[in-house]
């Protein structure tokens, strides 16, 4: 493996470790402090900038690896057409070239693909953290408002509320008795009209 493909492999291993660290279930406070550190540290910002430049080079290597794999594949097809030029050394050399071309293509392709997954996972986790912070703030605001309403109510307000509740109970009882009286009158009127019809 050449030096630059060795660096690409190291970058791939770094991405896998970073992805595993991102998806490890951590308590909310730890995760929030970790992402706050990542967002505010200037060294991390410089490292992200350097990684973006490295991914440009990895993309160039990916295009080169795809072209080489395509060339090796077409060379293999022409070799099959010329069946008279076969020996074990050329076949093993061809298979080695094909293996290295495929390895380099997959290595650079997976590195680029995992970088996209990492960026999306990072943005999703930061959105989740901000949503959780908003939820905690909303719960804290509602609980403080309810504690103020519970603790801030004076005894005179409680007495007023009790008087209003008693008044409502009396009005409900009066309406119920009036409803019962009207229902009895209606039933009596219907009973008389039915008896007069039967006569």
From TrEMBL:
It comes from the Eukaryota. One of its GO terms (biological process) is intracellular protein transport. May play a role in anterograde transport of membrane proteins from the endoplasmic reticulum to the Golgi. This is Endoplasmic reticulum transmembrane protein. Keywords: Coiled coil, Endoplasmic reticulum, ER-Golgi transport, Membrane, Protein transport, Receptor, Transmembrane, Transmembrane helix, Transport. GO terms for cellular component: endoplasmic reticulum membrane. InterPro entries: BAP29/BAP31, BAP29/BAP31_N. It is found in: Endoplasmic reticulum membrane; Membrane. Belongs to the BCAP29/BCAP31 family. Residues 1-135 form the BAP29/BAP31 transmembrane domain. The chain crosses the membrane at residues 6-28, 49-70. Residues 158-192 form a coiled coil. It is a multi-pass membrane protein.
